[in-house]
Design a protein that fits this description.
About 60% of the residues lie in helices and about 0% in strands. The protein contains nine helices and no strands. Helix 7 runs antiparallel to helix 9. The protein binds heme C (HEC).
């Protein structure tokens, strides 16, 4: 086998060659990183809060509303908050993909367009996703630490979602 890192193998690399090789790789990566910054992504933003918005319709208390906006709204509403690092590629691509899939499943901006039956099933799903630590997505909380819900915050949101669910019947 040919080893790059251990000399004395059947085809040992000279150290200078290795350095040159790594430098070329680094330059290629750097150029690729710069180039992808110019590739377009769709921004998920609207100026107005729609009348059908979950927080508006339910008159959600501010503390719970803030939790949902920070932890869920980026992927589950028509308004994503874009600090600089979310505009960086390839993060923006990943996020775009998550927004597309997340909104298809659950869109807090269009909450009041759902039937009561659909709301009920979405609320159940929200509760179980939070209980099982499935949401917010792990890959997202790696970058976005403030989206992590603490245990008391999870309880607060779950209790609130249960209350909304009970008020539907
Ligand atoms: C980084 C983007 C992202 C964030 C942030 C996020 N989600 Fe999701 N969510 C998704 C995606 C993508 C899906 C689609 C299924 C999957 O890939 O797991 C999904 C699926 C769901 C579903 C399943 C819907 C269904 O049809 O049953 C629920 C419920 C949900 N998310 C709730 C939440 C809640 C509540 C939060 C905040 C605590 C949250 N999500 C935060 C991306 C996100």
């Amino acid at each position: 086998m040919c080893s790059l890192f251990f000399s004395g193998g059947p085809c040992s690399f000279h150290e200078n060659n290795l350095m040159r090789f790594l430098k070329i790789i680094a330059i290629i990566l750097l150029v690729a990183f710069v180039v992808i910054q110019f590739m377009p992504t769709e921004r998920n933003q609207t100026d107005l809060v729609p009348k059908t918005d979950f927080l508006l319709v339910n008159n959600t208390p501010e503390n719970i509303g803030n939790l949902l906006q920070v932890s869920c709204y980026d992927c589950h509403s028509n308004n994503t908050n874009y600090p600089w690092y979310k505009k960086l590629q390839p993060i923006a691509w990943f996020l775009e993909d998550h927004i597309k899939n997340g909104k298809t499943d659950l869109n807090f901006s269009e909450w009041d367009e759902y039937s009561n039956r659909r709301k009920n099933s979405k609320l159940k799903s929200i509760i179980s996703q939070i209980e099982d630590d499935e949401m917010p997505l792990f890959s997202y909380t790696l970058v976005h630490r403030d989206a992590v819900l603490t245990e008391p915050e999870k309880e607060l949101v779950i209790e609130y979602m249960n209350r909304i669910k009970d008020s539907l019947q």
